[in-house]
Amino acid sequence: MPLIAVGISNPQDLQRAITSGIPIIHIQKTCLALKGAQRRHVRDTQAWNTTQLLSLAILWGSGGAYLTKRPFPQHASPVRRICLGAAAISLVLYTLRLMRVLRRDYDIIEEQDESFLLRNDVAESRLRHVIRIWLPFGIGGTVIGCLVRTFC
């Protein structure tokens, strides 16, 4: 697999480079429409990912508050146990999938007239990624959980 794709000038080549997982993609200087479309795509993707992270923080915080406020009764019906277990497993799997997607997502870097797409796992270490993305939303989920536990 190549490390860099140079001189991408049409959407088909760009899509092929992204799906094959090339970490650094150079968009040709003269392709202003492709640069603009990619900027919009990155901006929209980041907004959607932020919405997903906020939703996950709210779900984790509310779920944690629910379980700490009301201890899980041993005499609960099997259907309730299965539903809560399925919800917890679904939440864990969705969180893991989002972690992987965010790690393999691209950011656009513009230097003078040059535009590059740089994959996040190449640009930053795993620890920095966790501190930058997951720590703030984890703390936010904990705060939400404490608020839910206090006021509900």
Short description:
The protein is α+β, with helices and mostly antiparallel strands and 152 residues long. It has one domain (4-151). It has helices at 11-19, 32-69, 78-103, 120-123, 126-151, and strands spanning 4-8, 24-27, 106-111, 114-119.
Written as H for each helix and E for each strand, in order along the chain, the element string is: EHEHHEEHH
Total number of domains: 1
Binned strand content: 5-15%
Strand line-up in the sheet with most strands:
1-2-4-3
- Terminal CA distance reads 53 Å
Mean pLDDT: 85
Class by alpha and beta content: alpha+beta
CA gyration radius, whole angstroms: 21 Å
Low-confidence stretches: none
Shape: elongated
Helix content: 55-70%
For the biggest sheet, the summary is: 4 strands, mixed
Number of strands: 4
Report the total helices: 5
Keywords: Membrane, Transmembrane, Transmembrane helix
Transmembrane segments: 47-67, 79-96, 133-151
Question: How would you sum up this structure, described in words?
Answer:
- The chain has helices at 11-19, 32-69, 78-103, 120-123, 126-151; strands at 4-8, 24-27, 106-111, 114-119.
- α2 runs antiparallel to α3 and α2 packs across α5 (126-151).
- It is of the alpha+beta class.
- The model has no long low-confidence stretch (mean pLDDT 85).
- The chain has a four-stranded mixed β-sheet.
- It is 68% helix and 14% strand.
Per-chain topology:
Blueprint: E1 4-8, H1 11-19, E2 24-27, H2 32-69, H3 78-103, E3 106-111, E4 114-119, H4 120-123, H5 126-151
Parallel strand pairs: 1-2
Antiparallel strand pairs: 2-4, 3-4
